[in-house]
Write a structure and sequence with these properties.
By secondary structure, the protein is an all-alpha fold. It has nine helices and no strands. The protein has helices spanning 2-19, 38-52, 56-69, 74-87, 100-114, 118-134, 138-151, 156-237, 241-277. Helix 2 runs antiparallel to helix 3 (56-69), helix 5 packs across helix 6 (118-134) and helix 7 packs antiparallel against helix 8.
Length: 281
């Protein structure tokens, strides 16, 4: 329960201090700022009034007029970036040219690097940190908040956001390591499963091959046994069926020839007896 309260408190700070992107009107101090022209001053004043009324698109127009009057105005550039941020979205794609946030980032990046006014550099770095935080780019957010504190060590809002970004970064890194370990475990598990599966497949294949070879050997043995039995039958029978038929036919032919000779002899004997009987005495 206490942990939930702490998380809710952190979430409240994030929503109030980070996602809002700016907690004050865009007016800036004039520390080391060049002297403003009358037209620039009027446009900035009008833009700030519109900004406070949350009429950000109209405020943008006034800030652009101020830049036309003085293109080098760091204050007008920063206020324009702030108005654009209010109209854009940190969750949109960074390469979306239609998202005002992209133009705002360009203005802030230039100010964070080269603004003469140290306060402008610090505020620009702070807003860049808020944009990075909203995109969950905590590494970049941490560096931006650190830069903001270098320019303005008394910026407590930047200090609080820095601590939040560092905590989020630690949690993100922990989750990243956890996901990497999980992915590695899944890869190892899949590797082991594939290894076992291949092993089982190879084992089954080898067994099938062995069974096929065994069946082939059994078939060859049966053929050999059958041939041997046929040879034994031929040896025991003395001759094949064809040879037996030929022998039988030869015997029948001899028997028929013998019978014919016997019949011829009997006929001749009967003729002699008749001749003797018919002889006159």
């Amino acid at each position: 329960m206490r942990l939930n309260k702490i998380n809710n408190g952190i979430l409240t700070l994030v929503l109030a201090a980070v996602m809002a992107l700016s907690t004050t009107a865009p007016a800036m101090s004039q520390n080391k700022a060049p002297k403003m022209t009358k037209q620039e001053r009027v446009c900035l004043r009008n833009g700030n009034k519109l900004y406070e009324k949350k009429r950000y698109a109209e405020a943008e127009v006034e800030y652009r007029k101020a830049l036309q009057a003085n293109p080098a105005s760091e204050k007008a550039q920063f206020n324009l970036a702030t108005a654009l941020m209010r109209q854009g979205s940190v969750t949109s794609q960074q390469d979306d040219d239609k998202n005002p946030m992209k133009q705002a980032e360009g203005l802030l990046a230039n100010l964070a690097k080269g603004a003469q006014d140290k306060q402008v550099r610090g505020k620009a770095s702070y807003d860049l940190g808020n944009i990075a935080y909203g995109r969950q780019q905590y590494d970049q957010a941490v560096e931006c908040y650190k830069q903001a504190l270098r320019c303005n060590p008394d910026d407590e809002q930047a200090r609080r956001n820095l601590r939040l970004a560092q905590l989020k970064k630690q949690q993100q890194d922990k989750n990243k390591d956890k996901n990497q370990d999980k992915n590695q475990d899944n890869q190892d598990q899949n590797k082991d499963q594939n290894k076992d599966q291949n092993k089982d497949q190879n084992k089954d294949q080898n067994k099938d091959n062995q069974d096929q070879n065994k069946d082939k050997q059994n078939q060859n043995q049966q053929n050999q046994d059958q041939n041997q039995q046929n040879q034994q039958k031929q040896q025991q029978g003395g001759m094949s069926q064809q040879n037996a038929e030929q022998v039988l036919k030869a015997m029948q032919d001899r028997e028929r020839a013998t019978q014919q000779r016997i019949n011829a002899q009997q006929a001749q004997q009967q003729r002699h007896e008749r001749q003797r009987t018919n002889r006159k005495w």
